[in-house]
Fold:
Amino acid sequence: MNDIKKPLPPLDYIPADIACAYDYEQLAQAFIPADILAYIAGGSGHDITQRNNQTAFQDWAIVPRLLADLTNANTEAQLFGQHFKHPVFLAPVAYQSLVHPQGERETASAAEATDSCMITSTLASVTLEQIVARAKPPRWFQLYFQSRPEDTHALINRALAAGYEAIVVTLDAAIQAPSIRAIRAGFKLPGNISAANLAHQRPDEPLQQRPGDSPIFARYRQQAPALQHLAELIKASPVPVIIKGVMHPDDALQLKALGAAGIIVSNHGGRTLDGAPASLSVLAAIRCAVGDGFPLLFDSGIRSGSDIFKAIALGADAVLIGRLQMYSLSVAGALGVAHMIKLLREELELCMAMTGCASLAAIRATQLQTTLSGH
Amino acid sequence: MNDIKKPLPPLDYIPADIACAYDYEQLAQAFIPADILAYIAGGSGHDITQRNNQTAFQDWAIVPRLLADLTNANTEAQLFGQHFKHPVFLAPVAYQSLVHPQGERETASAAEATDSCMITSTLASVTLEQIVARAKPPRWFQLYFQSRPEDTHALINRALAAGYEAIVVTLDAAIQAPSIRAIRAGFKLPGNISAANLAHQRPDEPLQQRPGDSPIFARYRQQAPALQHLAELIKASPVPVIIKGVMHPDDALQLKALGAAGIIVSNHGGRTLDGAPASLSVLAAIRCAVGDGFPLLFDSGIRSGSDIFKAIALGADAVLIGRLQMYSLSVAGALGVAHMIKLLREELELCMAMTGCASLAAIRATQLQTTLSGH
Amino acid sequence: MNDIKKPLPPLDYIPADIACAYDYEQLAQAFIPADILAYIAGGSGHDITQRNNQTAFQDWAIVPRLLADLTNANTEAQLFGQHFKHPVFLAPVAYQSLVHPQGERETASAAEATDSCMITSTLASVTLEQIVARAKPPRWFQLYFQSRPEDTHALINRALAAGYEAIVVTLDAAIQAPSIRAIRAGFKLPGNISAANLAHQRPDEPLQQRPGDSPIFARYRQQAPALQHLAELIKASPVPVIIKGVMHPDDALQLKALGAAGIIVSNHGGRTLDGAPASLSVLAAIRCAVGDGFPLLFDSGIRSGSDIFKAIALGADAVLIGRLQMYSLSVAGALGVAHMIKLLREELELCMAMTGCASLAAIRATQLQTTLSGH
Amino acid sequence: MNDIKKPLPPLDYIPADIACAYDYEQLAQAFIPADILAYIAGGSGHDITQRNNQTAFQDWAIVPRLLADLTNANTEAQLFGQHFKHPVFLAPVAYQSLVHPQGERETASAAEATDSCMITSTLASVTLEQIVARAKPPRWFQLYFQSRPEDTHALINRALAAGYEAIVVTLDAAIQAPSIRAIRAGFKLPGNISAANLAHQRPDEPLQQRPGDSPIFARYRQQAPALQHLAELIKASPVPVIIKGVMHPDDALQLKALGAAGIIVSNHGGRTLDGAPASLSVLAAIRCAVGDGFPLLFDSGIRSGSDIFKAIALGADAVLIGRLQMYSLSVAGALGVAHMIKLLREELELCMAMTGCASLAAIRATQLQTTLSGH
Structure:
């Protein structure tokens, strides 16, 4: 135990020395216990993908433009007929009570205050209804398929009843990839924190494993959603179904053909396959595959407004903020999350003004300059 | 407060241990208060562009040549019918009194002593007339459009009356991008320093912001010069109008078509859009766009004579020196600035001798070798 | 002597803090004396190739896939009509008694326990028969040609009599390249450890050197196997003959034409020519040269299941584990080696599940993404 | 003064802990005074080219080959009808008494003992005749053109009379580029060391400088050899004239057309134009320009036998050793230099054996593998 400093409780004001959204990452070190921080900050394995997610943004430079006409400049987005004031979405992050006693309730308040779309996780530490009570639309529900279909249906119905307006199905986490960093830090989910919306479910069936069979493969077969179940869900859903965790153009095309309303390019913030490419590095190819009009969101590695600008320029319609959400939540609750989003927006708008982009569509039409040769 | 050492006053001699122009950067640490140094040295945001401006020069190597004929070797340049003994110009740097009690007056003396073209900033801390009193031509005036046209016109007329021979319009700083480094250092413009030539202006009108509108976009609309105003200025000006802050070939072409006499490739030393490409990395493409005869100057990142050589080889007619100007000014006033320019010239001439280039035109005809593969 | 800590004796349990196979490398520092560790860990010369062997894997990323069908997923391999439950082979590593009193006997037990193919070294520190007594097939024998043909024949016959089912001829170590690291550490083979299977051989003939001749070339001529001898061995062998140490497609083609049953791409873990390319960097070209059906194994640099995945994707049918074998042996004997292999298998299976690969053939059909541009 | 340790006197034995030729660089730190070491080790400017000279070798890997026939393997070279037992030449390094009281006399003894071609510098600190007394052929003389033609002729005649068999004209150092490192270290040539062979010359004429003229250009005009003088020298010389300091294919072609017997690709060990490319990076293009049969030597950056192998593979017929010569001389005089050369030869032979190259011609026919992608 090198670090015996006790984590600070969340502030009820915005700390004075925050100069940019990214500063919340550094500041959060003092507010989150070391083992929980390792769990949140770490990726799977040796964090290779987690690190690459961020450094990939350095491969691109944004070319300033002059004499722009910003008469009607705005950051608005339209997706599935829904209107969004800005493209900064709150990613589905599990167990937010790990960093704030009010957990996702605070995040919901911040979403409400900043007109942000919050995507509530299946593994939220407070109930779907408690979150809805705090945040007006847009609000989406993130779904992990449960091992029993009836549990999955029950979750969906409950979310729809509560007023969630889209379902985000995460497909890339059928099997848990261990985080070396979290293991070393001795992280375990504290006893007082749990998946509030799964509390009533029976425990999983025991693993069905043939003799000589790999437990890894067996677990995957048990837990990964089958193509057929996904197809049925899409068909039956009264709200748009969006698939999260897509990293290959062929998967994107298959999902589009299956009827998905949109997809989220994501490697789960580097928390699934360590050694996967940076999400940003596959974005343009996936946009190219699905075509211009198809809703495409981006997740993994965003730390600044210029990162958002780059993701949009490379094909995204909107972006999801994961770790910064937890960091700002730990520092100052709803106030922190709202401030973090405000900073990201301003940083994005600054990029837009300096590049003469009056809309997200104008960003998309922009050509970034690679830094891989010639800085 | 780690660093409690008091900054040294400017010397009245050239310090013995200066071995190259770049040494002034290191030496200046002892002569400039920490917060002011952060303001001068820092770029916007996280200094990404500011750093890349310098490292971009490492992407190129200069191939030595043998048996050169240097009979009539010189560093002379002709631009807009004006004659320059060398291509090392003093960039428009604001508030020079921050580092020397005599401010721009000292710089002007150095310009006079070294036959250098000094470009006086709109934000000079002494008056245009005080500067002219010290420096014979060539001397140019850098213009920021003011939010009221009448203020802009008054400034121009005053500069022309004082004998400035060209107007450099800076277009890339319509909106202020914060420097994390300067914020952290707590920099604020000291009360005894101000823009001497704007002293008589009325304060800006309050920001006009629609409900839900972004303050960033609103401020841009208020402060950025409109295309029409620029066109009128160019048309009306009795002296050449040169545009500073160009980073995209299309902007260069538009400005050329508009009647600009020349352009300055610059990202404002990394002080505007953090994440913009290194200025050097866009230079060749812009030269290619505007064609061979069009006056093209280069700014951002120059620290040595070989940097100047590279910028000229990649398309520049002359270069602007910003930070080294402030560093040498802080160390030894006019003497320091003059010495710094002398060193840069000698470093440039050494490169010319070793590559067999007897003129700037010969440098332009030189092919640099990329170091991105094969050192 | 900075490090005076005595090495720990091997454990009889698996240490709690092992989170991945690679962890054995770090842990082994405490179990292996410094000079022996330098000998094992070091490559030849300045370890350039040894380091590159590992970093080469970072040049590739593995793209996750969704909605896989893993119904019959397995890691089985067929080579030369032999069946292997998984592609993780134990490389021929000399003198294993350096790190465990029971030496190769423990490794053999681990091979048995994990259904792994163990390749016994000519320089094993226990007898071929002692190893066979511990490990059921598959088991292969690695051959260094001896300077006298009769010694070579005797070794082969003894291995066949003992039940070894393939002969791996190592061709890349005809001449010893010194390891700077081992020299600095003062490594010498301890008196109580020797090549148990060569104990009865007469000492080598003295070197035949012409006047002015290089001792290096003379030694090579004396010790390197001649093409003719290899051809005779291949022709006469009742079991498959596999060549280890191939780094060039032309050598691979020549050996295939000569009748080799398979080849092992390897630079001897960076222990021969310092400055040789990473083994991984030549793998795809060699696979391309020999064609799809020809047995191709890979050695040098593997530290994780994702490394194995990458090697297979780039053309390997199976991989050899060298240093991790010694590290895990030093930490916990047979138990350690078995655990290390189990971890590598699980890490490989995790990659397979996340990329939707139900077989090694599916991995081979996968396209890795280069990280050299775009992370 | 951080380092107050007194430099050690040269040893009369070879230190035990030398594992490779490169080790002499490290060891020499203890034998050479800090200011002299800065002068020897430093390049010009900020040592950019000096460093790149060495790292450029890392851009290439050497691919091992199997089953080589080394029956008649040797390292012999033929150049200008002269025979060389190996391609490791001693570069012309000035003022060798700086690191050993006997100076070049010791180096000459080492050349004799190792059958090496020593190239004596115009700036040798002992006389041409003293060197010849110690070293049998091959021996060459390096010439700097003197500012008075009669001095140049006298030097040449004296060298020919003493038995030097080739003249190496250095063209790249007409003008001195300062070394920041040597300046900082306060290096000045000690009073007891001088250019022994120039002792009788009258001092240079004062610099002829026009008003407003650059002293740099003026000095170049005074000191650089004119094309005509070089042509006359080549025409009149009874021995081969080889040009040192060539970095551009066009210069190589011009010199070949002028009648030069051979050229030496060199950037003077990074001591002339800081920012010049690594010598290795221009070698292949120059070989390509001059064609296969033309004698081409390589200088700058060699630290090991594998460096030599790479230079030969990229086009060199032989290589010059500069700094390692001074380092080994400082450590153990003639013994050290001879040992250093022996180590380089053995390192080269090891590379040859492992790549199946039985001659320098075979190395030339070898294709290196780039490490710029794929290690």
